User: What shape does this take?
Amino acid sequence: MKKNITNIIRVFFILIWLIGIILMVANNSELLFVGLLFSLLIIPVALAFIRENYGVKILNSFLEKTGSYLFYICLLIIALIGGGIVIYQIYNYLKTGTWLRISIINAFVLFENKWAINPNDWGGLWAVLNKTPLSISLISFSFGLFYAKETS
Assistant: This one.
């Protein structure tokens, strides 16, 4: 009986996580927020479930292994997004003949950040971020964190 309940709870966790992922893919900023919230809220619930059913020792081992893997996977995803932006810029240049400049400010505008759209203060910071390419920033950030993790 306990095994059936455990399996039902596992399916529930997976469904909530999938709903969060589906909402994140939607082209709506409110749904993106709800999807991120669903995906992030399921993590402590799942960890508590592991601790209750399998014990603290297994939970610590699980977190130790997955935390390190998750860190490297996130760095890889960030670097691939940066590379994807460069590939998109090259594709757009070959198609139209003009270079599409994508800066850090463009990323903030994409997420409807009011300061990035209409800066009232910190104009110098806005100008620097507007001239800094997003692709190079993402790739540099991921390699910098990788190097910091490896040397520590």
